[in-house]
Amino acid sequence: MKTILTEQINYASINFRDWSFSYFYSDQGLVFTTFQKEAVKEFEKWSGLKSVFLQKNTAIDQAFSDYFAGQSSEIDLKIDWHFWQFSDFQLCVLKALQKVTQPISYTDLAERLADKKAVRAVATAVGKNPIELLIPCHRIISKSGQIGQYRDGSDVKRALLELEGK
């Protein structure tokens, strides 16, 4: 996915159960999150950027820590929507997904966008979600109720859904 780099990108990590959760941010907000072990390499793969700086952000750390401790069901942090070059459709899908509070299928999400024929396009847009948790793609499940796939693995997805009591 293409990016529009206008400023320094920082990152930090916190623990959630057996995983390390890493977040990347600009002065404008979050740009990427991942549970991958090699988070910087994963960010480089997504963004093409090779220069990021390790620097914790107390407010971001606290928001994710509260979420992982079960003290908050939603994470109220800013997203830097201008960092990535999203198509209008991708942006529409990701913003709709941001409002999802319970597990739903791709079909359900497509119907919320008033185009149930766009299920594959919706699934592709969700698959390109760079900001897990704030844009809760882990809440997408199959129509049959199966947990389905997740960028960071089904074990992480299951743990997040259990944390949220869903």
Biggest sheet strand line-up: 3-2-1-4
Largest sheet: 4 strands, mixed
The first-level CATH class of the domain at 88-163 is given as Mainly Alpha
State the distance separating the first and last CA atoms: 31 Å
Name given to the CATH architecture of the domain at 88-163: Orthogonal Bundle
Our estimate of the beta-strand percent is 5-15%
Count helical runs: 6
| CATH H-tier superfamily of the domain at 88-163 | Winged helix-like DNA-binding domain superfamily/Winged helix DNA-binding domain
Radius of gyration: 15 Å
- The number of strands is 4
Secondary-structure element pattern, one letter each:
EEEHEHHHHH
The helix content is: 25-40%
Oligomeric assembly: single chain
CATH topology of the domain at 88-163: Arc Repressor Mutant, subunit A
Arithmetic mean of pLDDT: 92
What does this 3D model show about the protein?
- With 166 residues, this protein is α+β, with helices and mostly antiparallel strands.
- The protein has a domain at 88-163: Arc Repressor Mutant, subunit A (Orthogonal Bundle), CATH 1.10.10.10.
- 34% of the residues lie in helices and 14% in strands.
- It contains six helices and four strands, in the order E-E-E-H-E-H-H-H-H-H.
- It has helices at 39-47, 58-68, 88-98, 106-112, 119-127, 154-163, and strands at 10-16, 19-26, 29-34, 53-54.
- Helix 4 (106-112) packs across helix 5.
- The radius of gyration is 15 Å and the shape is globular.
- The model has no long low-confidence stretch (mean pLDDT 92).
- It catalyses: a 6-O-methyl-2'-deoxyguanosine in DNA + L-cysteinyl-[protein] = S-methyl-L-cysteinyl-[protein] + a 2'-deoxyguanosine in DNA; a 4-O-methyl-thymidine in DNA + L-cysteinyl-[protein] = a thymidine in DNA + S-methyl-L-cysteinyl-[protein].
- It comes from Oenococcus sicerae.
